[in-house]
Design goal:
Chains A, C: Keywords: Transferase. Chains A, C: This is Glutaconate CoA-transferase subunit A. The complex is a heterotetramer, with two copies of chain A and two copies of chain B. By secondary structure, chain A is of the alpha/beta class. Helix content of chain A is 30%, strand content 24%. In chain A, α1 packs across α2 and α2 runs parallel beside α3. Classes of the chains: A alpha/beta, B alpha/beta.
């Protein structure tokens, strides 16, 4: 049964040291507030899965929480590199991390297979691409009808997935709209799912029947965190804080500046701070 | 005719290669600018697809990321990421995949993964994202990048996405039945693969550019076509379209938070 | 480039004797008008693919157009058996037909693989089920990571797919809503796609971004046929004519009555007759 | 207490087996009636899924087909058919798969495909539809059917969907890790599989039904539990709920076209 909980409690009840966890969001609806709460609670030894591990994984890696990352694009989208992830991979700071790298198609198919309860996914992928040589989790199978060789990857099955969504209704059904990304698959592939939402409405009766809704019995906990996606955005609520993505490039470039920023904006902050951060971005949505 | 920068020439030359009927899978950066200039000039009905799931977008400003809200607001439809890669890319619906590159070799092979050794990289780059499958499932591939000896190299450090491999029929030998890279647009020239060897060959020099300039900023020995012409300079309309787009984009990206990230 | 054509022309240009064809619709939005036009044009030797070959395939089989059917449920949904299909399978009347039978999961995965450009689909299916023994197109593969044996079926790739949809815009983009079934996959899996629609509107600008829209460049021809799904229904336009499904059970029970009914209601009818058939069902929608 | 028919007892007994927390994949006919009676009585929050893609439906009348419009109108969400079978059924989200049968054996194996030989059938039935995978992917399976010697047979003609096979641990031996048939509700009795052999055993007789009646309408030698009780008769509320539902359904199915199919 889904529970409506304060974010502090939702994270504490559902994330554990050593978990395999996905904080998903494909540019849109990134669960920043949940990630910051996880940082405050100081988890260690996490396997972090995400197609596009942007700022929040850069932050978690920089804070020493990651044992391994599984990803397909470890960049600051539209800006450049992720400097904390680079520092960990290139220099082992603050700790060395394992890397399991796929393409977007590989990760998307792996999540889809996870949501589908399958052990693996097959697709036409990686031909001539060198990732298949450095990642032992990329194998191949022959089509039993045509003989064509297809790529195979194991499905993604996180212990827990965190997403941010526009709204829940009172029963705990969750609506995701706009760029829906990989969120539905990430939730359905996981053993537990925690969703932060902009708001709770009484019901979804007036919604179009074909929208992306996660029924309440697919969700473990819901926390209301207005602005919880900042500096990403929530379609219909507030715009992307592109300046924050540009600024992150400078903050993350220096270990000390990074640590100071994290102390001020994450460790000493709370989920309640997110609403104010998006106040100036609501008109632009 | 206004004066124009090499980068403007590159973007405009790239935009001209796109047709009204194309279904184009758009990478961020120079490809995105070129695709939208095409849409705003000679190819109003071109279908632009971004890997975030937005199909048939017509953004008024260039997205900073591949998932900015405006891509969805203006799209014909927005689908999930698995559907994007399964039905639309792998399904063979994309006519042109438009890619940039950190490192490129003369056969159109691209590296955006690492500089140095994969296990112990000198520089860890963002990685392939959608590119490994864009490179094999799109009907053909256009590449655009500013020339430099660091970027255009004899041997790339990592095969993020496959172009023509070692050249010739290497794609077919790997069971890839799409055309691969058919066009390279740099800030200095337009290149096409040799029909047999598949090595990129300069077929047009941008206005005022010399062969020597092209060679000096390229890490391999450049082949030039026997009959080479000059890229038509940007028209006023093309330049204005690109500059207006970039001005709108700059204002928008700095705008919402008054140019300042919103933390306390 | 999509063309807006009268249905007679759209069918004539896109269907050929011997084609593998899907007239899809999962209970909702069944392309009856297109099937009736195909019957009038008298095609032969067709391989008819459909998850739920209901009345229209019963009619096409009874009229001797089918060489083979590929399906997962050959019934009159909620009513019982399909008597013309039975007569062909049991008695070879009017001709013998080949049967390739799958489960719904098998067919759905096969269409999905077809839309995805893959040669085959894998899924957890048919365990202990005898279909796998009588259908050589059901094979298996071992997951290269876990060793689990999964079912494999070849993808469905029709020469042409016909569907009925609610509306097109002037550019030829098509909207399907409500019970969306397998229509998107059936169109994207096919070489050619013909869509009948209830109406054409100027644009889709006011639609929610996440609806099921087939872009105009995925469609070969569009024909406007109001009521074209009767006795099935078009969500938002008219209700299902359940009485017609019940009545069909009697009509199809007898060869002569079937032939007379087809002569009167199909051979001597036209696409224009559909609007009147749903007139009484519009209020119930 | 009103009098009630064996079919009414069957439907109501079946409805009682469903819990408020269940996610139920509903077959058409008796299963659909039972699931909706459960929803309208003791299990208002039960999630009903029909294979047409409608999740969490609450129809006011019973659908004639699995894809009637009202299923979509009242659903929490309506998804595509591939998604239904991949994410929701195969994904392990369904707690109860509720099936009917044309032929059933004592181990809960079901035939809805053919009577006679598959290649040369005496009667070609509609086939499996969703059942082969409902039978292996649902947490457990409930079966409901009216008893008859033609329907409940020693040996079914075709294994459309797998129950307990030859009994015992046959499911596990085939790599099926769900429970399979755990309940059979007929018009005469309630049956559960023996813990070891998995053979269906009568555990409750409906009011007024004798052991002999159960045996006379069953094609195999019936096992009865040592301690057998009587199914509680339908309550007034249960009966009224079922009859109102059926009356609304009848009116609706005859209604729109004034009971007459709309041809010229």
């Amino acid at each position: 049964m889904v529970k409506f909980l304060p974010l502090q409690k939702a994270v504490a009840e559902n994330l554990r040291d050593g978990d395999t966890v996905a904080f998903e969001g494909f540019t849109h609806l990134i669960p920043t507030a949940a990630a910051h709460e996880a940082i405050r609670q100081g988890f260690r030894g996490l396997t972090l899965i995400r197609m596009t591990p942007d700022l929040i994984y850069d932050q978690m890696i920089g804070m020493g929480m990651a044992k391994k990352i599984v990803f397909s694009y470890v960049g600051n989208p539209g800006v450049g590199l992720l400097r904390r992830a680079r520092d960990a991979i290139e220099n082992g700071w603050p700790n060395t991390i394992e890397v399991e790298e796929h393409s977007h198609a590989g990760m998307a198919n792996a999540y889809e297979a996870g949501a589908s309860g399958l052990p693996c996914a097959i697709f036409r992928g990686y031909r001539g691409a060198e990732l298949a040589k450095v990642n032992p989790n990329i194998k191949s199978i022959a089509c039993p009808f045509t003989g064509e060789i297809l790529a195979a990857v194991p499905s993604v099955r996180p212990d827990v997935t965190f997403i941010h969504a526009q709204k829940a209704d009172k029963k705990g059904n969750v609506l995701v709209e706009g760029i829906i990304g990989i969120q539905k698959e990430a939730v359905l592939a996981a053993k537990r799912a925690v969703v932060t939402v902009e708001e709770v409405v009484s019901d979804f009766d007036d919604l179009h029947p074909n929208l992306t809704i996660l029924p309440h019995w697919t969700i473990t906990a819901i926390s209301v965190v207005p602005g919880g996606s900042h500096p990403s955005y929530a379609h219909g609520y507030y715009a992307r804080d592109n300046a924050a993505y540009l600024e992150w490039d400078e903050i993350a470039a220096d270990r000390e500046r990074f640590c100071a920023w994290m102390q001020e904006n994450v460790i000493e902050a709370s989920p309640d701070d997110f609403a104010a951060r998006v106040a100036g971005l609501r008109n632009a949505a | 005719m206004s004066s124009f920068s090499p980068n403007e020439m590159m973007t405009i030359a790239a935009s001209r290669a796109l047709k009204n009927e194309d279904v184009c899978f758009v990478g961020i950066g120079a490809p995105s600018a070129a695709c939208n200039v095409a849409r705003l000039t000679h190819a109003p009905d071109i279908t632009l697809i971004y890997e975030s799931g937005t199909i048939g977008t017509a953004p008024d400003v260039l997205p900073l990321s591949i998932g900015d809200g405006e891509l969805c607001d203006t799209a014909v439809t927005t689908v999930s990421v698995p559907e994007m890669f399964r039905y639309w890319l792998q399904g063979g619906r994309v006519t042109i995949g438009f890619l940039g590159a950190a490192q490129l070799d003369k056969f159109g092979n691209i590296n955006t993964t690492v500089i140095g050794d994969y296990a112990n990289p000198k520089t860890r780059l963002p990685g392939g994202g959608g590119a490994p499958e864009i490179a094999i499932s799109s009907g053909e591939i256009y590449i655009t990048m500013a020339q430099s000896k660091r970027g255009m190299v004899e041997k790339i450090d990592f095969f993020t996405s496959f172009g023509h491999g070692e050249g010739g029929d290497h794609r077919q030998r790997l069971g890839i039945d799409t055309k691969g890279p058919t066009l390279l647009i740099t800030d200095l020239a337009i290149w096409k693969p040799d029909e047999i060897t598949k090595e990129f060959t300069v077929v047009l020099l941008h206005p005022g550019v010399t062969r020597e300039q092209v060679q000096e900023s390229c890490g391999w020995t450049v082949k030039f076509a026997e009959e080479m012409d000059t890229t038509p300079a940007p028209t006023e309309r093309e330049l204005k379209t690109l500059r207006d787009l970039q001005a709108r984009t700059k204002a928008a990206h700095e705008g919402a938070g008054e140019g300042k990230a919103a933390y306390r």
